[in-house]
C-alpha cells in the first residue's frame, strides 16, 4: 500500500524530471538562432517499482535529428556551392569587360571602325590617318590587356582552388578529432549532443566545398568520402588532398594522397561544391573566353589586312 512517503517520493521524481525537461526547453529557446544547433528533448521512463512506488525519471537527452533530411540538405549545399563559385567567376570576368565606362571592347571596336569611315571619306587626310592609328593602338592595347587580365584571373582562381583544398584538409582533421571525442563520450555515457552538432555543421561546411557522402556507424563515428568513393575521414584518421602542377602552370591538378603517400589525380572526379565551380571557371570558362577573344582579334587582323591590301 502506498504511504505518504511513497507518494511524496513519486512527486519528487516527477518534479525533477519535469525540471530537466524545462531546462532543455530553455536551452532550445536560447539556441534557436545558433548555427548548427539541433533541438533536444528529454526521454522519460518509469522508475523500477510497483504500481504504488514507481515514479518517473528523465533518462536521456535526445538530439532531434533527421539523417535523410541532412543528406538532402548536404546535396543542395554542394550544388549551391558549385553555382555560387561560377557566379563569382563570371562576375569578375564581367568587370574585366566593363562596357559601362565607355572604354570597353564594344566602344573600342566602334571607334576603330569609325576611324576607317572617317579616313574613307577623306583618304589623304593626315588627321584622319593619325586618329585611325591611335584608335588601332588603343584597340590592340585593350585586347592585350584583356588577355593579361584573364590569365591573372585564372591564376587567382588556381590559388583559390589551393585554398579550398587546404580548407578541406582542415575540416577533415576536425571531423576526425570529433569522431574520437564522440566515441569516447558514448563509451562513458556522457552527453555528446553538442559535439554531434559541431560535427554536423562541419559536414555542411565540407559539403559546400566538395561533393561528399557520409554515414554514421554504431560507435557514433562517421565515415566521409568524396563522391568517387575515396575516403576522407575514417574513425579518428583522415586522408589529405593536395595540389600539384598540371600541364598548364595555371591549372594545378587535385590529388588524393593515401596513407603510403601514393597520389591519385581526382580533378575530373569532383562533381560538385565550390571546388568544382572553381575548376570549371579556371579550366573551361576562362579558356573559352580567351579563345573567343583570340578568334575575334584574328578575324579583325585578317579582314583588315585583306581589305587594306
Topology:
Elements: H1 4-30, E1 40-46, E2 56-63, H2 67-96, H3 105-121, H4 126-188, H5 193-209, E3 212-216, E4 222-226, E5 231-234, E6 237-238, E7 241-244, E8 253-257, E9 263-265, H6 273-308
Antiparallel strand pairs: 1-2, 3-4, 4-5, 5-6, 7-8, 8-9
What does this structure look like?
By secondary structure, this protein is of the alpha+beta class. 61% of the residues lie in helices and 14% in strands. The chain has 6 helices and 9 strands, in the order αββααααβββββββα. It has helices spanning 4-30, 67-96, 105-121, 126-188, 193-209, 273-308; strands at 40-46, 56-63, 212-216, 222-226, 231-234, 237-238, 241-244, 253-257, 263-265. The strands form 3 sheets. A 4-stranded antiparallel sheet has the order 3-4-5-6. The longest helix is centred in the middle third of the chain and has 63 residues, at 126-188. It starts with a helix and ends with a helix. The mean pLDDT is 83.
